[in-house]
Amino acid sequence: MKELVILGGLFFLGCTVEAPSPAFEKAREQAASAEREWRVYLGDRGASHRSPLDEIHPGNVSELEIAWTYDSRDAADDGSSQIQFNPLIVKGVLYGTSPKLRLFALDAATGEELWSFEPDAEVRFWTASRGAMYWEGDDEAVERIILGAGPYLYSVDARTGRVIEAFGDGGRIDLREGLGRDLSRDMMGVVATTPGTLFEDLILMGGRVNEVKGAAPGHVRAFDVRTGELRWIFHTIPKPGEEGYETWPEDAHERVGGANSWAGISVDVERGLAFVPTGSASFDYYGADRKGDNLFANSLIALDARTGKKRWHYQFVRHDIWDRDLPSPPNLVEIRRGDERIPAVAQVTKTGDTFLFHRETGEPLFPMREEPVVGPVVPGEHPAESQPLPVKPPAFVRQTFSQDMVTDVSAASAAEISKRLEDMQFGSLYTALGAAENVLYPGLDGGAEWGGAAWDDETGLLFVNANQVPWVVRMVEASDDQSLSSAIGMGYLHLCSGCHGLDMRGDGVSVPSLVDVSDRLGFLELYRLMREGRGRMPGTASLLKWYENAAIAWYVYTAGEDDRPENWAKAEGPKTFVNAGFQKLVDSNGLPGSKPPWGTFNAIDLAAGEIRWQVPLGNFPRALEAGWVGLGAESYGGPVLTASGLLFLAATPDARIRAFDKHSGEVLWEAELPASGFATPATYEAAGRQFVVVAAGGGKLDQPSGSRYVAFALPVSE
User: Fold this and answer.
1) Triad 421, 426, 432: Cα angle to 5°
2) Domain containing 485: what range?
3) What is the number of domains present in the chain?
4) Is residue 586 part of a domain?
5) What's the pTM value of the predicted model, to 2 decimals?
6) Could you report the per-residue pLDDT of 442-480, keeping only the tens digit for each?
7) CA nearest 535: which of 698, 673, 327?
8) Cβ neighbours of residue 453 under 8 Å, at least 6 residues apart?
9) What is the CATH number of the domain that holds 492?
10) What is the spatial distance between Cα 711 and Cα 696, in angstroms, rounded to a whole number?
11) 544 in any annotated domain
C-alpha cells in the first residue's frame, strides 16, 4: 500500500496529496532548469519550436546514438493506430501518451516508466492526441497534467498519475457541454486533439468538431485550471447582436457548426493576448445553407486572454468551400525593419502562404492582394468573388495545377494521370468546386499542416515543412434527409462515403476499399469495427442505435455493383451536395500525380519576405522501392530548432529522423526509427545530457503502426 502524506494537514479542494514514488523523486534529481527542458507544447506559448540547448551541434551531430527507447504498447496490428504526441519534459520527467491515449510518466534520462493513467475506455483507440499541458500551482505540491482524450479534458496529478477529483466531474470535463446544443450522443461533438494553452489560471481551449451537417459550433472557451469551471466563451458563429452575425444566415448560430480552433492557440503572455486560428464552417465543401462570408471561420482572432473579448481579427478565406482550415498555431515573432523590432504574429496556411500581422493591431506587414474565385459551381452555392493573399512572402508550395505539372517519374504514370485529368476541373488556387471531379492543389492536407513552423529570432527565418500532393474532391447530388433511421442507404452516404467514396473503393493508400470487405472480415467483425472505430475512423456507437449500425454494416457487407451509391445518390426529395470521397490524385503505384517534389522543407525570411532555401523532404517507401530517391513525401509533425543551428524533423513515411543545418537545409544526420515518426520531436536536458526524443507511432500514409518513443543523445564520455 502506497504511503499517503498530508503536508501540514494540506488538502487541495478536498484532495489529499499523495507522495510520489522513490523512482519519481530520483528522476527529479536529474532535472535541468526550466528553460532547458520542454515544458510547453511546441516549446513555448508562442509556438517557437525552439530550445536554447547547444550540446549537440553540427560538428558532433553525426555521433548521435539511441540513448533509450520506451514501448508504450497498444499499437494496432492493422496499422490503424498513431501517436502524434509532442512530449513534455518537466523537472526530469517525460510525459507522453500511447496509441490508446494512456498517459505515462518516464524518467527523462533513462526512459523508465514511473506511472501511467488510463482515460475512460470509451475514448481509447479512438483519436490521436498531439500534446498536453503542465500546470503548477503556487504550492509546488500542486502539479497537474491536463490531457485531452476524445471529448474529455482530464486533470491528473503530475507526480502520481492520480486523477484530480475536484476538477470538473470527478476529474474531467466534457467539452460537448455548454455549447447550447445537445451533443451528448456525439462522441465526435468536440474532440481535444491539440492541447489547450495555459494563461495564468486559465485553460484556453478550442477543439476538433465534425465536418458534416449537424456539427458542433467551434466556440473558443476558457476554463479554470483548478476547477474546470467555464470562465469565458467567444462565439465563432456569432449570435444576434454580435459582430459578424450579418455574415451568416439569421439562424446559423442555432444549426451551423465548425469555425473551430482545432490547430492550437498561441499566447503573448506579456500583452495578455491569445491568437486563435479557426477552421471551416460545416459542411466543409457545400455552403448553400450558410450563405455569406461566415465570420469568424477561417480567421486569426486576437482575444484578450483574460476576458475573451476580441481585439482584432483577419479572415483568410471567405465562405470556405475548400476545407482551408488554419492548420497550426501561429508563431509569435519579432520582425526587424531598420532599427525597429516589430512584434508580429505569423500564420502559415494549407495553401502554402505565410501571413504576417502586427501583434497589437492586426495590421498586415506586407501588402495584400485579391485572388479571384473562378470556375463553375454546383447549384445553390454562393462563393465569395475573391480571397486575400499576401504579396510577400511568396508561397512555399506550388499553387496552381495544369497538364504541365503532371508527374514525370515515368511515361506510364504521366499518361495515366493525363488521361484522368480530361474529365476533371482544375486550374488556379481558388477554382470553385463544380459538379465534375475537382483537383485541389495544394491538397486537403496542405501546404502546411498541424506540425506548424519553427521560428529563429537570430536569423529571422521561419522553418516549415510542407506537402505538395494533389487531392480529388468529387461533389455529388444527394438527398438532404438527415434522418439516420433510414440507415441502409443515406446513412452510408452521410457517414461513410466522405472517405470510402461512392464507389466504396477508398483511395487505395490510406483509406481501404470496402468492395471486398466480406473477403477480409466476418460480418460481426465489421459491425464491431464500425461501432468502436479504429485509427482515424471514429466509431458510430454514440451516433446510431445498434440496429441502425447493423443496417449500414449489412449494406456495406452485401452491396453488389448495382447497389453502389452511384445508383441511389439522386433520391427523390430535397437535395444537397456532398463530397463523395477524400482521395488523392495518384497513379497506379500509389504515388502522387504531380511532379516532384511531393514534400519540402522551407526557410522563409520574414523581414525580407523571401524564401531562403527549399529542399525535398523525405521519401515515399513506394518511390524507394522503385529506385527513386529525393522526390520528397508528405509529412505530419513539425521541426524543432536548437541554439546550435540544428533543425530536428521526423514526420515522413520513410521512418527517419533527420537533423538539418538551419543556414542551408543540408541534412547533417539521419537515423532510422522503428516506425514513422508522425509527431513533433522534443529536445531537453536531463542528467547533464541533451536528448532528442520523438514518438514513432506510424499509422499514416499506409505505414504500419508503432508504439515506441526513441531518445537520441551523444555517447557518454568515459
Assistant:
1) 140
2) 481-573
3) 1
4) no
5) 0.91
6) 999 999 999 999 999 999 999 999 999 999 998 888 766
7) 698
8) 47, 49, 328, 331, 346, 348, 462, 463, 464, 638, 639
9) 1.10.760.10
10) 11
11) yes
